[in-house]
Amino acid sequence: MREVGDQLRDWLGETVMPYPLDIFGGDGWQLLLADPARGLDAAVFFRAGLMARMGKRRAKYKVDTRMVIAIGEVDFIPGNRVSEGEGWAFRESGRALADKKTVHRMRLLVADKYSIQGWKESVILLDAILRWRLTQVRAKVLVGALSGLGQREIGDLMSPRISQPSVARHLKSTDWVTVSECLREFANQWHRGRLLKGAKAKVLHSLKRLYR
Fold it and tell me: For the segment 199-212, what is each residue's pLDDT rounded down to a tens digit?
């Protein structure tokens, strides 16, 4: 888990992920992102990374994780212990994870002040793709694709090495086109929403100045 967390931080950069992955209670983990637009990227990367490193080819059960992506206010972080932070995002994600009845392993919660319509349902569908399509080998290929590697480069990094056509087949089996489009559109919609709110704020500010 620590190695995958470090790999994720190297990929995102410390500006986006300012603190290292925090592990607590043996198998609990939490991370904080400064850019909500990368929330789905980080979730898929970390989940696939765990399956790639901890899964076994012929194991009856594959390693997976439950997670809640919470986009909202963060009040403070004590030192580097993200798991001891306070704020809406921490409270709501903790409550959602405490609900053992849900069958979903990846969920999205968004504070009311942010408008991201339809994405809670989209994340549930993305969760289903990852749960049913990923094997250890496919998870390794997916991490490589997320990292921006070409298919030949991904094949060369596999152990044992696999051919470019094999990488292409594994990506097709993970429905990589759908996954990548989902991640890209989530980030784009978040940025469009922020720009729109900024434009509205500027117009409102101009109107206030006009009517003074």
Answer: 344 454 445 445 44
Nearest Cα to 52, choosing from 151, 123, 130? 130
- pLDDT tens by residue, 160-196: 999 999 999 999 999 999 999 999 999 998 887 654 4
Which tokens belong to 49?
């990374």
Q: By the 8 A CB rule, do 89 and 77 touch?
A: no
Closest listed residue to residue 139, CA positions, set 167, 104, 106, 107: 167
Cα separation, 183 vs 19, in Å, equals: 22
How high is the pLDDT of residue 61? 59
pTM of the model: 0.86
- Give the position of tokens 């986006």: 16
Element (H, E) at 174: none
The set of residues, in sequence order, having a beta carbon less than 8 Å from that of 25 and lying 6+ positions away, is none
Question: What b-and-e string marks burial along 111-126, b requiring 16 or more CB atoms within 10 Å of the CB?
Answer: eeeeebeebeeebbeb
DSSP secondary structure string, 40-90? HHHHHHHHHHHHHHH--TT-SS-----EEEEES---B--TT-GGG-BSHHH
**Number of neighbours of residue 170 by Cβ within 10 angstroms:** 26
